[in-house]
Design goal:
Number of domains: 4
CATH superfamily of the largest domain: Metalloenzyme, LuxS/M16 peptidase-like
CATH architecture of the largest domain: 2-Layer Sandwich
Shape: globular
Helix content: 25-40%
Number of helices: 27
Strand order of the largest sheet: 1-2-3-4-8-5-7-6
Structural class: alpha+beta
Distance between the termini: 63 Å
Number of strands: 25
Domain Peptidase M16 N-terminal: 51-185
Domain Peptidase M16 C-terminal: 213-390
Domain Peptidase M16 middle/third: 396-677
Domain Coenzyme PQQ synthesis protein F-like C-terminal lobe: 784-881
CATH class of the largest domain: Alpha Beta
Organism: Rhizophagus irregularis
Length: 886
């Protein structure tokens, strides 16, 4: 079709509007049968592409803008510049110069905002009350039109970036990821440090005679161009209205005709391959990771050949690699996945090892290659591919809504990829089978085409330290023994393809009837001394899914530290015993979970209702008739023991929250008490204990979804029939309680940070306000929490730069209500406490100075948040269950 000069790069399936302000995708956008929203994809004259979403029922509007530039484009001498740009961009614009104008506007109108920087994306997004979308969009757009990059904010935001980096310094996920990057091809930007810190953004530029703000302006001018931006806007307004707003507010973004950044080479070259890296983590974890260099597969979206490999190598059912390694006692978990970026990719096999697995890590590697060899010998199975395809089609067909901000963020990033625009909502679907493509990838899983990384605290003789995080490591060639074993690889008799997945649902009938007003809450349809059944037929979402939540109330579960630990071990053993059988169920969209809590054991079964009763019966039967395997018990006990020890290495902010819970909530135990109790427990103790645990129960059940009332009653009867518990005595009923702090009293609980290498401290400042039953004070506390939230962040984080982690909010416990403020910082706790109290002393004036209109606006925002509806069936179930279990 003919195009004008301003639409010179316009694809043929776009039509230019009459006023030449934009072009519209002229083919329908494929969407789920379950999606009641309407969509329109446009391209502005500056080449910015925007997806507009009309959702008449949304109670939160949102927008996300993704810029196709990330830290791969940092100048080599200025690590973290893209990330710093993301931070400073928020600090005022020519039209809205007040530095917290945007966040304050959102806070007033039930909104929130965030941003992040990755390898090749910088993403900005917000959510806001639907009536205030236009004002939010106007403020948002100005960040990309005329940001101030206020010189007065530069040093503060460098501190914010540095504080964010400090938060990550002792986190193994960040440390090991950076180690992999630092050891990759130094000529590729993958090897860079992307976060930035005080050294890279302040000290080094000064040494080089550079003005960091000037460098930032150059970076922004070079890369922040409309033609590599993707925008998604979701609102209640009509598509025409959303189109008009986007044209009005975003057309002024400059199009600098920036080419999408590309990078030569691959992070893994011959120089990096066939090496083994030994690294020492902060926490006591043992892991093995094999990384194969792969190409960028983004253009193969029709076929997704990598899904075939990840599905089979990562399988956990009978005949799988995981099952063989688990049988040998070598692994706790295993994952296989493709990780792609612009111009390159990796195929990764990641394993959490046991102590024995670490000692036999070369044999673990051999088994991985034996499985790969088996796949090569049996050939590509088209039925397996179509099974994966079918599961994805069912998932897409019944896809439910989720939080608007997450939805717009994901879509704006997806729009940067080369999908046909009409498939932008259905990128999860596999379209075609091509065995040749799968074989080509399978051929890349070779013995001479990988790098091996191992991590364990037991490693000694580590002679090197990674520059940015200080991780100790050493690099060696693979052993001759391992290389020879891989060259002569054969198959293993126990490694086989998975069987046909019997859990894939086939019955999608929804028992739908006309409902004028959905019921607000579930009804009690059965109430005995043994159990109470809450039931609500889905009358809102109309999907062939259901959720069954069961709480087995037992006074034994958390009665002592010893019983607490036994309850945890019991739940872990059940999950371990069920894993192989139920893996296929989870692949097919039917999930289960077992957790432990002060009231007892909690069981959840959710997903397509077609298979739920079968799954539930299997799980409850296993709970009743668990045979504890001594070898599995030893491995799980050791894993639980490590988790308790590793807790000591959590961040100070996590610890401060935990200890506040411990001090104020009944029936919680200290980590050291649980560790001590664990020592003496033997496998025989668990069988004796769980028989007692299940002997006397009060069972609380919620069944919500596409299940008829009679069937719900049958399900509850089946649970009782299997468990056959006696009723609890009235004196044994469990009530959650919290400690009431005497009025006018102040208490300080102080713990040293266990990890001497962690530079952070934290304060959790809690003001208990009233008994939970005091409705009037509880409501006032809620309002005060809302009024304090944005000023607290602005003062303690933005202005005073105490630390990256600053949060405040209402704290609701079973018996009490209060206000909490949490700060993690490199500054000492006395200073943090003083600054928090200084803010609280000034809060009264902030509220007093607030106009009546602003006060009412913020109160209305709180009301709007309270009235937000669940976005999907699981959210509604969780809301009801939260009320029931507490």
């Amino acid at each position: 079709m003919a195009t004008t000069s301003i639409f010179k790069n316009l694809p043929s399936n776009f039509t230019i509007s009459e006023d030449k302000s934009h072009a519209v995708l002229s083919v329908p956008i494929e969407q789920s049968d379950n999606d009641d929203r309407s969509y329109k994809l446009i391209r502005l004259s500056n080449e910015l592409e925007a997806l507009l979403i009309h959702d008449a029922n949304t109670d939160k509007s949102s927008a996300s803008l993704d810029v196709n530039v990330g830290y791969f484009c940092d100048p080599e001498s200025l690590s973290g510049l893209a990330h710093f740009c993301e931070h400073l961009l928020f600090m005022g614009t020519e039209k809205y110069p007040k530095e917290n104008e945007y966040l304050d506007y959102l806070s007033q109108h039930n909104g929130n905002a965030n941003a992040f920087t990755s390898t090749n994306d910088t993403n900005y997004h917000f959510g806001v009350g639907p009536e205030f979308l236009e004002g939010a969009l106007d403020r948002f757009a100005q960040f990309f039109i005329a940001p101030l990059f206020d010189p007065n904010c530069v040093d503060r935001e460098i501190c914010a970036v540095d504080s964010e980096n400090n938060k990550n310094l002792q986190l193994d996920g960040w440390r090991l990821y950076q180690l992999e990057k630092s050891l990759s091809n130094s000529k590729h930007p993958y090897s860079r440090f992307g976060t930035g810190n005080l050294e890279t953004l302040k000290e080094n530029p000064i040494k080089q005679g550079l003005n960091i703000r000037d460098e930032l302006l150059k970076f922004h001018e070079k890369y922040y161009s409309a033609n590599i931006m993707k925008l998604v806007v979701l609102g209640k307004e009509s598509l025409d209205q959303l189109t008009q707003w986007v044209i009005e507010k975003f057309s002024a973004i400059k199009n600098k005709n920036v080419p999408i950044p590309t990078f030569d080479g691959h992070p893994l070259t011959e120089n990096e391959l066939l090496k083994q890296v030994f690294a020492k983590p902060v926490k006591d974890n043992r892991s093995l990771k094999i990384k194969f260099p792969f190409p960028d597969l983004s253009s193969l979206y029709r076929f997704m050949p990598e899904r075939y490999l990840s599905h089979l190598i990562g399988h956990e059912g009978s005949g799988s690699l995981f099952t063989l390694l688990k049988k040998k006692g070598w692994v706790n978990s295993l994952g296989a996945y493709y990780q792609g970026d612009i111009g390159f990719g990796f195929f990764i096999v990641s394993i959490d090892l046991t102590e024995s697995g670490l000692a036999n890590y070369e044999d673990v590697v051999v088994h991985i290659f034996q499985y790969i060899e088996m796949l090569k010998q049996v050939g590509i199975q088209e039925w397996t591919y179509h099974e994966i395809k079918k599961i994805r089609e069912i998932s897409f067909r019944f896809r439910e809504k989720y939080a608007p901000t997450g939805y717009t963020t994901n879509l704006s990033m997806m729009m940067q990829k080369p999908y046909p625009r009409e498939w932008i909502l259905s990128t999860s679907l596999i379209r075609e089978f091509d065995s040749k493509l799968i074989n080509e990838l399978l051929d890349l899983l070779r013995h001479d085409n990988f790098v091996l990384r191992l991590s364990s605290q037991s490693f000694t003789g580590l002679d090197q330290k990674e520059k940015w995080y200080g991780t100790e490591y050493k690099v060696e060639p693979l052993s001759d023994k391992l290389i020879q074993a891989l060259k002569n690889i054969t198959t293993h008799s126990e490694l086989k393809l998975p069987e046909i997945n019997e859990f894939i649902p086939t019955d999608f009938e929804t028992y739908k009837k006309e409902i004028s007003t959905p019921a607000k809450r579930p009804d009690i349809i059965k109430d005995t001394q043994i159990s109470r059944l809450w039931y609500k037929k889905d009358d809102t979402f109309w999907v062939p899914k259901a959720n069954i939540y069961v709480l087995l109330n037992s006074p034994l579960a958390y009665a002592t530290p010893l019983y607490h630990v036994k309850t945890r071990l019991y739940s872990e053993l059940i999950k371990d015993a069920l894993n192989e059988y139920l893996y296929n169920a989870q692949m097919a969209g039917v999930y289960y979970g077992i957790s432990y809590r002060p009231q007892g054991l909690s069981l959840s079964i959710s997903g397509y209702n077609d298979k739920l009763p079968v799954l539930l019966e299997k799980v409850v039967n296993k709970m009743k008739n668990l045979k504890v395997d001594p070898e599995r018990f030893s491995l799980i006990k050791e894993k639980v023991q490590r988790s308790y020890k590793n807790f000591l290495l959590n961040s100070p902010s996590q610890h401060s929250e935990y200890y506040l819970d411990y001090l104020t909530i009944d029936r919680l135990w200290l980590n050291e008490e649980k560790l001590e109790a664990l020592e003496s427990i033997k496998y025989e103790d668990i069988e004796i204990f769980y028989a007692k645990l299940l002997d006397q129960l009060y069972i609380e059940i919620l069944i919500h979804g596409n299940i008829l009332k009679d069937n719900a009653i049958k399900i509850s009867q089946k649970i009782e029939e299997i468990l056959q518990p006696k009723a609890l005595l009235p004196s044994q009923s469990i009530r959650s309680r919290s400690i009431m702090i005497p009025k006018g009293k102040k208490f300080t609980y102080q713990r040293d940070v266990f990890d001497s290498d962690n530079v952070n401290s934290a304060v959790e400042y809690y003001i208990q306000i009233c008994d939970f039953k005091n409705r009037e004070l509880r409501i006032r506390s809620n309002i005060m929490s809302k009024l304090a939230h944005e000023p607290c962040f602005d003062q303690l984080r933005t202005k005073e730069q105490l630390g990256y982690l600053v949060s405040s909010g209402l704290r609701l416990e079973s018996g009490s209500t209060g206000l909490r403020i949490r700060v993690q910082s490199i500054k000492d706790t006395v200073h943090l406490e003083n600054r928090i109290e200084n803010f609280l002393y000034g809060l009264q004036k902030i509220i007093e100075d607030m106009s009546e209109q602003e006060y009412q606006t913020r109160v209305q925002a709180l009301i709007d948040r309270k009235l937000e509806k669940p976005k999907n069936l699981s959210q509604e179930t969780s809301r009801h269950w939260g009320q029931i279990k507490n």
